[in-house]
Amino acid sequence: MSGRTDSVAGPAEAEEAERAEPVVRPEEDAEFYDEARRARWLATGTGALLTLAGVAAALLRLTGPAPALVPAAYATGAAVCAAAALLGARGRTRRALWLLIAGTMIMALGDQFD
After folding, report:
1. Angle at 70 between CA 69 and CA 72, to 5 degrees
2. For residue 14, how many C-alpha atoms fall within 13 Å in the half-sphere facing its CB?
3. pLDDT tens for residues 4-46?
4. pLDDT tens-digit profile of 41-89?
5. Which of 90, 102, 101, 78 is nearest to 40 (CA)?
6. How many Å apart are CA 44 and CA 53, to the nearest integer?
7. Interhelix angle 93-112/69-89, nearest 10 degrees
8. How many helices (H) and strands (E) does the chain have?
9. Fewest CB atoms within 10 A around its CB: which of 27, 87, 94, 99?
10. Taking a C-beta distance cutoff of 8 angstroms, is the pair 85, 48 a contact?
């Protein structure tokens, strides 16, 4: 079986089809970039906030009578949230969201050992 893979009938129409660009309205383009910017700021801010909370909790648990596993879990969760904040700042918001969830779960697991 041999045949052409393009669906355009003639060579002149094929060249015209290749030159055609998708039409994107400027307001849709600007809205997309605004939404992406908000997502980056949200991921970065949430990661920084959870990092500070995890570090503070680790320091508080370190000075108390809690087992050593508890502050280690808080510190590990804070480190994961810090990595999420960095990824969020670079535009990897989906991965940052999953790291924020994982970091919060690690901190919650540390709270269960207390």
Report:
1. 65
2. 8
3. 565 555 566 656 656 666 555 666 777 888 888 999 999 999 9
4. 999 999 999 999 999 999 999 998 888 899 999 999 999 999 999 999 9
5. 90
6. 14
7. 170
8. 4, 0
9. 27
10. yes
